[in-house]
């Protein structure tokens, strides 16, 4: 039996990846993190998605990245930008994907999973360093030397199937795999029921993706845009 | 001002590393983890050590590796072995050093630290995959591509100064740097006040180290050995 771990935020990308993993593995364990993000509608979306896709298990892990500060996604003192900025925006959470993948690796090792999926993308993205192909390659190399499973000859494989896709391609892939994007929340400042602002980086990339794919955007917005 | 992060368990190795870092940096932030380990005397030891060495800050981060299971250090159902075993023993905690270093990386990035110290050792050790030189190299490579600091040209350096030292060398280094080893706890099954069993892997390596260094072992034991 083939088991996969999927990092599931409840957003568009990770939901698409979960649907892809569901097609390719007997057993899919979704991992979400309560890491001090501003809103909990993201976790509610992850729960809906995990149920909707019939995933085997959905675990929510508490880690307090908020206490570290440094990001507008976890620090209420910082303002989420509404314009594309030069360089890496303040929505970047320090070492977030490294921390998430490290936990996924621990779960994968205990669950005897052969794969870890994550929905990072280096095309229509916000410029975070830990969303680039070099990052995935470096983490795979780490996995190859870091774990007990590796030592006994079965390396766990890090899979980032969206890495080189446009947002429109991702949406088409997800629709083909049966994803209901109305259930997902991508917005950096979604309200308590998951309605989106329509103006943050993440919303703008998502809106453009639906336009480019020629599909109707099922997202609910709380801000006129 | 130069800042270093040190992973501090309160054991012999990490305490030695903290003392070395204290000599080389203006500011040292120690990180300990409450990760579901069986006893809390380890964290009490880390606190004593941080105070004793005059470190700038000591942070304890809660992460529940225990919920993952798979190790006798976090799962009360599994027995800590009292004999050296073939292969990797059940005291191995899946992906522990990867998870700890991932957090240290986040803290380092936010604190603008230039170095992360950890006390792993590949000579007198228990055979864990994430205590080998390949692991340190792979994590350094990951750091080089994963963080914001790196992108703007200042990579954070992973330092494992004990990697190739014998336990006796480590003890000599620590004594020269002013470490009081009576304050440290290495035992896998220490009691609530930090007294050691004297029979687990970690105790046996420590006892041999003091013998080889020709120094008196200041450890308190609760088991005859």
From TrEMBL, chains A, B:
UniProt name for this protein: 7-cyano-7-deazaguanine synthase
Cofactor: Zn(2+)
Binding-site positions, Zn(2+): 187, 197, 200, 203
Organism per entry: Saccharospirillum mangrovi
Membership in a protein family: Belongs to the QueC family.
Sequence intervals crossing the membrane: none
Its EC number(s): 6.3.4.20
Lineage: Bacteria, Pseudomonadati, Pseudomonadota, Gammaproteobacteria, Oceanospirillales
EC class: ligase
Catalytic activity: 7-carboxy-7-carbaguanine + NH4(+) + 2 ATP = 7-cyano-7-carbaguanine + 2 AMP + 2 diphosphate + 2 H(+)
Keyword line: ATP-binding, Ligase, Metal-binding, Nucleotide-binding, Queuosine biosynthesis, Zinc
InterPro entries: QueC, Rossmann-like_a/b/a_fold
Alphabetized NCBIfam families for the sequence: 7-cyano-7-deazaguanine synthase QueC
Pfam (any one): QueC
SUPFAM superfamilies attached to this UniProt entry: Adenine nucleotide alpha hydrolases-like
Protein's job: Catalyzes the ATP-dependent conversion of 7-carboxy-7-deazaguanine (CDG) to 7-cyano-7-deazaguanine (preQ(0)).
Residues reported in the UniProt entry to bind ATP: 8-18
């Amino acid at each position: 039996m083939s088991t996969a771990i999927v990092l599931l935020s409840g957003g568009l990308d990770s939901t698409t990846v979960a649907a892809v993993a569901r097609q390719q593995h007997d057993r899919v364990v979704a991992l979400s993190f309560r890491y001090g993000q501003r809103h909990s509608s993201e976790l509610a979306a992850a729960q809906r998605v995990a149920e909707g896709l019939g995933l085997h298990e959905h675990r929510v892990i508490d880690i307090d990245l908020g206490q570290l500060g440094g990001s507008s996604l976890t620090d209420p003192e910082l303002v989420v930008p509404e314009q594309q900025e030069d360089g890496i925006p303040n929505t970047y959470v320090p070492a977030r994907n490294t921390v998430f993948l490290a936990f996924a690796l621990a779960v994968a090792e205990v669950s005897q999973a052969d794969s870890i999926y994550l929905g990072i993308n280096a095309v229509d993205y916000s410029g975070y360093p830990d969303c680039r192909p070099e990052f995935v390659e470096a983490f795979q190399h780490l996995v190859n030397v870091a774990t007990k499973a590796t030592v006994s000859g079965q390396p766990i494989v890090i899979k980032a199937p969206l890495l080189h896709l446009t947002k429109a391609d991702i949406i088409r892939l997800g629709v083909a795999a049966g994803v209901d994007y109305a259930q997902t929340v991508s917005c950096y400042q979604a309200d308590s029921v998951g309605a989106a602002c329509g103006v943050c980086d993440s919303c703008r990339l998502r809106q453009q993706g639906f336009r480019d794919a020629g599909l109707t955007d099922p997202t609910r917005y709380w801000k006129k845009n």
